[in-house]
Amino acid sequence: MKNQYVLVLHGGAGTISPEEIEAEKAYRDGMMVALNAGIAILERGGSAVDAVVETVRQLEDCPLFNAGHGAVFNEDQRHELDAAVMDGATLRAGAIASVDRIRNPVLTAREVMDGGRSVFLSADGAERFATERGLEMVDPGYFSTPLRRLQLEAVRRHDLNSQMLDHALAPRDGMPDGRFGTVGAVALDRAGHLAAATSTGGMTNKQAGRIGDAPVIGAGTYANDSTCAISATGTGEHFIRACAAHDIHARMKYGNQPLGQAMASTISETITPLGGEGGLIGVDGHGNIAMQFNSVGMYRAWVYEGYQPEAAIF
Amino acid sequence: MKNQYVLVLHGGAGTISPEEIEAEKAYRDGMMVALNAGIAILERGGSAVDAVVETVRQLEDCPLFNAGHGAVFNEDQRHELDAAVMDGATLRAGAIASVDRIRNPVLTAREVMDGGRSVFLSADGAERFATERGLEMVDPGYFSTPLRRLQLEAVRRHDLNSQMLDHALAPRDGMPDGRFGTVGAVALDRAGHLAAATSTGGMTNKQAGRIGDAPVIGAGTYANDSTCAISATGTGEHFIRACAAHDIHARMKYGNQPLGQAMASTISETITPLGGEGGLIGVDGHGNIAMQFNSVGMYRAWVYEGYQPEAAIF
To answer: A236: which chain B residues are within 8 Å (Cβ-Cβ)?
Structure first.
């Protein structure tokens, strides 16, 4: 039986700032450019892995999203980027963390996966590997944008993030946020295979060296043909402690829950009780999709083969 | 109801080399020193977190085990250490990766957990945090031992590890091995709380920047009072792809399997099919323990409150 492809992406979750609401059309356009790039691959019979990597690469290149160009600043006013990809057919995975000279972290994560020697590389070792593989390297300033610098200053003024773990996040009316955000994509291809990819600049004003959930297989990124492909965005520490993406897989595999119920349970029973805030996107082997969040909004777009692409924020 | 404490440790799994068999008594003694340090804490009513951290700290300080002093060399003839700890009562966790100047990585993982700002720190950021917290820093040469240098040369001669993923590991008769190994501990304390800690030098001749499963919450380390505490050792890439530790938790929580069955299923159904080799230790909230491996041996020791400590290798 030939499957019909499905592709879902997210561009981050959290409080949506007034500036972002004004720029809603730009965000929707940015998501559609990325979605269409993935669709083009799936439409010609390409793999779910190729589709999610290309979709995420496009989101990395768009300055509106917190990944690649447009990544947030850490406490040192530097960037530290994380990314991962997982192939649901083989359970192969590749991830990198804490890099600031690789233009497209998701492409390096893919190279790590294909290289087959390691699954997870950090910092200088990841950049050396990317250089050896001929991936495009950039000056760290490439990632910086004026909006992210304003957000760093705003977060520091409000002293957010300094004590955030184990505390529910207070509402922040009318303030530029961008404290977290991540991009990701999940897909089912016509061959029936699933894949997930995630890329992020992390959280504004994050601790130097901090690794979030995006590159942690089973936390922010997971794919397994027997169940689902998942990509997360949110307060990464809680998603790591929750093993969020693998928790959805496990509720499906061992608890026989359908994808939507499994994702809802992971959010309400596993992430929210920890004080976590964010969202997840997923697709199962039958082409069902789920996009859920406990934050104010989550940038997302999706397509079922043969139907019009759609996008939503709230 | 007052619980009776339980403590289990491992000192790595894999092919046991002839040198190691000759030194069997030394290994057993090293494990007993560490186990007794943890017992002393539990005996006076201390927490599972305190017990597993102290047990692992002792194993880090013993040159026989691949963690802290005695860690293996990577491809650059340097050390890169990883460690993690997780508190089953609160699901708080701390982890560090790719450090080479922190004497006891597990103590820094504990500080990360207690600090509450991040869960996972890498490389320079982790070392800066350790320095700020007043943890003991050392010259990278502190970790080096002559045996590990011989093992690096042996691994390079045999060109092991270069293509190891997705391939079952061939037997290596009579060769010093030490390609992988990790130390870890899990405990149930008298208050009924679980904790897990893991620390490692990784795999001999590993790629620079490579992060293994030990510091990945849900892969090499996981604890949750509702199910179990788990620490793993083995070919880390496979354990990451398997989300091994969280998979055991999930089989218990969503599949209602007892600990021993869940661990056996994770090894046979999740790790072995990927080509993974290694083992796991675990304890559940009732004080049941499990210690299983698909490698030739796994250094391990355990104690039930009121009984004599025991140790085994094969």
So the answer is: 119
User: A164-202: per-residue pLDDT in tens?
Assistant: 433 333 333 333 445 568 999 999 999 999 999 999 999
Report the pLDDT value the prediction gives residue A219, as an integer from 0 to 100: 98
Predicted local distance difference test score (pLDDT) of residue A260: 98
Q: Residue A23's CB: how many other CB atoms inside 10 A?
A: 15
The secondary structure of residue A101, as a DSSP letter, is S
CB contact under 8 A, A124 and B208: yes
Cross-chain Cβ contact A241/B93 below 8 Å = yes
At B254, the pLDDT band (50, 70, 90 cuts) reads very high
What is the pLDDT, as a whole number, of residue A15? Answer: 65
- All residue ranges of chain A with pLDDT < 50 are 161-177
Helices (H), chain A: 18-22, 24-43, 48-61, 105-115, 123-132, 146-157, 236-241, 244-253, 259-265
Rounded Cα distance between A24 and A32, Å, is 12
Supply the pLDDT for residue A159.
62
In this complex, the residue of B122, B129, B207 whose CB is nearest that of residue A123 is B122
> Which of these is catalytic: B15, B55, B108, B182?
B182
Q: Assess contact for A142 and A103: CB atoms under 8 A.
A: yes
Cβ of A122 within 8 Å of Cβ of B163? The answer is: no
Compute CA distances B150 → B42, B175, B262, whole Å: 38, 11, 38
pTM of the model: 0.94
Residue of A76, A226, A252, A254 to mutate when probing chain B, most B C-beta within 10 A? A254
- Do A232 and A278 contact (CB within 8 A), yes or no? yes
Compare CB distances from A207 to B80, B117, B164 and report the shortest one's residue.
B117
- In terms of C-beta density within 10 A (0-12 exposed, 13-18 middle, 19 or more buried), how is residue B310 classed? middle
Strand pairing report for A120-122 and A92-99: parallel
Please determine, for residue B175, whether its predicted confidence score (pLDDT) is greater than 70. Answer: no
Task: Please list, in sequence order, all residues whose beta carbon lies within 8 angstroms of the beta carbon of residue B256, skipping any fewer than 6 positions away.
Answer: none
Minimum distance, in Å, between the CA of residue A115 and any CA atom of chain B: 9
Q: In A, which residues are within 8 Å of B240 by CB distance?
A: 93, 119-120, 217-218
What is the count of residue pairs from A and B with beta carbons less than 8 Å apart?
176
Contact B165 A116 (CB under 8 A): yes
Q: Does A241 sit within 8 Å of B119, measured CB to CB?
A: yes
**Which helix (H) or strand (E) is B150 found in, with range?**
helix B146-157
> Residue B170 — pLDDT band, cuts 50, 70, 90?
very low
Of residues B88, B46, B211, the one with CA closest to residue B55: B46
Answer yes or no: do B240 and A254 touch at CB < 8 A: no
Average pLDDT on B220-243 reads 98
The rounded distance, in Å, linking the Cα atoms of A93 and A215 is 10
On the 0-12 / 13-18 / 19+ scale of CB atoms within 10 A, B253 is buried
- Among B216, B253, B270, which would you mutate to test the A interface (most chain A Cβ atoms within 10 Å of its Cβ)? B216
B182 assigned to active site: yes
For an interface test with B, give the residue of A114, A243, A257 to mutate (most B CBs within 10 A). A243
Stretch B98-116: mean pLDDT: 97
Model pLDDT, residue B178:
52
